[in-house]
Structure formats: C-alpha cells, structure tokens
Amino acid sequence: MNYENHSCPYCSKPLGAEDDVVVCPVCATPQHRECWAENGHCANEGLHASGYVWNGKDKAQPAAAPESVPDADTFICHICGSENPAEALHCGNCGALLNQKDADTSSENKTCAFCGKENDPDALHCKYCGAPLGKENFYFNDNPYLVGTGVTPDELIGGMKAGDIALFTQTNTKKYLPRFKRFANGKKLSFNFAAFFFAPYWFFFRKLYKAGIFFIVLFAAASLMLSGFTNEIFSAYDPYISLVNEFDYENATKEEVAAFEAEIMEMSDEIFEKTKKPMLIILGVDALTHLLCALIADKLYYKKMKEDIKLIDEEIGEPNMRKLMISRRGGLSPLAFAASIMGYNSLVQLLVSGADMIMNSF
Fold this sequence. Notes:
Largest sheet: 2 strands, antiparallel
Number of strands: 8
Helix content: 40-55%
C-alpha cells in the first residue's frame, strides 16, 4: 500500500516511497520502522483501548496525554507514562529512574557525576560506571540501609551521621548502629558472634585488612607453637590405628574378637589420658584467640569507619561522589574472605614445614 500522502504519527514527517514503513498489527497505523524501534511500540498505542483503527483518511495522531491528575500516592514515569507508587525509585514498567522528574531533552552529552566520562544525550545511566544520569542525581537520597533501624540519616553517632554509617556498614546496620552509639558514649568492648566463629577471616570480610593480617599471623604462630601438642595427640593414636588395621575380623574366632575389643577399650582409656592435657591446651588457646577477636572486632570496625569517613570528607566535596566513596570503602568483600582462608592455610603449612626442616637438621 502507498502511504506517501500520510505522515508518521511519531515524528510527524511524511512517509516517503523509499521509507521503511511498519504497520501496527492492532490499529493498522503506518509509521517509520526506526520510529517504532525508538518508541518501543506503536505511536498510537494509547488509542488501542478505545478501539481506534487507522482508515487511511484521517491523519493518525499520537496518543493524547491523560486528562486525569495522578493521585498523590502515585508517580507518572516521564519515559513510558506508567503509574508507580510515590516511594518507587525506578519505573516498574520500563526501569527509568523516577527521581529524574523531568525528561532531559538536551542534545548535549551528559557528564557522569561519579566517573566524569561523557555519555549520549538520551542515556539514563552511565555506560562506564552504571551511575544514573540526568539534570539532578538522586541516587543516594534514599538510604535503604536505614530501613527498620528507627534512626534518621542526620542523627549523629560519634560525630558521624547515621546515614553515612549505614552506607559504610551496608549489612546488619540495625545491629551496628546501637553498638556504635555505645562506643560513642564511652563503652570499650562488645561481643561479635560472627568474629568469634569466623576469626580471623571476619576482618577481611569487613575490609579490616590490617587487623586481619595481624590476627592471621597470631593464629598461625599459635598453630606453630601448638604443633608439638598436635603431634603428641597423633602419636598417641598411632598404636590404636595400627592395631585396628592389622586385626582380621573375618578369620578371627569369637574369643579373639572379645580379646581384641577388650584391648581396644583399654587402649582408648590410655589414649584419653595421654591426649587430655594437650587437647585442653589446644582448645583453650583457640578459644582465647577467638574470644579476643570477638571482643575487639566491633571497636576496630567503629574506629576504621570513623577514620575512613573523615579521610573522604577531607578529600571529596561533591556530595554524590562522597557517598559513593563511603559505600566503596565500607561494605563487604567476599573475595578477601576467601583469599584469607587460603592464605592462612598456606602460611600454617609453610611455617610447620619450615619448623620440621629446622628440627630435622639438628
């Protein structure tokens, strides 16, 4: 069909004979294929519900803007026109940033407020760092980490705003804020169960790298000093293991089995007596080192948080960049957690092997 005497309802430009035209399967409206692709749907999609069908006589018109005023509890997306809850950050239909209330129609490239690189004029997010783009950047205006804490973002804790602390901790903020308040009021210690059970790796998980290295060395040194007790325990079990491996159950008589079991019971009592002391020493030292980590972990974390935020305040003045750096300096590092486990095991093996070589050389 020839559409030369008609205009595209999206761009209002004439439909030429050489133009690539696509026809809407619902209302039969002709339009440029590029316009359809850019718009993402038929230019007259808003008229489909009314039963509109393009008849070739009337000039197709773009969908009219809704006459009704949205409720106070809704927010109209400036990209696709969908209604969203007032507290929504992104459109549930197209994903556009709803806080960017006015569409940016500028033809100039957008400069990212975070990484400083240039982006296309119609870009919503930076293609280099993923930060949202626009005339205003509201990326950090709503702090999800404070939800459920009952604390306002501007409340001061030890001279630091609770909103900044929440950006730093990110997870378990509800637990750390009360502890940090107690530290600000003069309390010296608290007990951190995660640090107790996962020491010394917990420090790397929370990016306390200096403390983590210190405790890895401490734990490795303790393992080296206790290696003698460990060898004593293994040596005590050697006769027991040899006896069990050498006994032939299949060909033994009932009398031999009874005698073997009696010997095993007697040997077990002897092993218990031999290993009781070294076992208690090993368990005691291990419990003390973990207890030390648990008691000072939160205090060290509180100190690092204050130092990092103060350092960022001294170097960065732009609000959004400042908040971005706080979130990056804080948060979690699963990679460091995994690396610390492998590093600790490697260090212990290296120390034990070195100690054995030294002992065997004499």
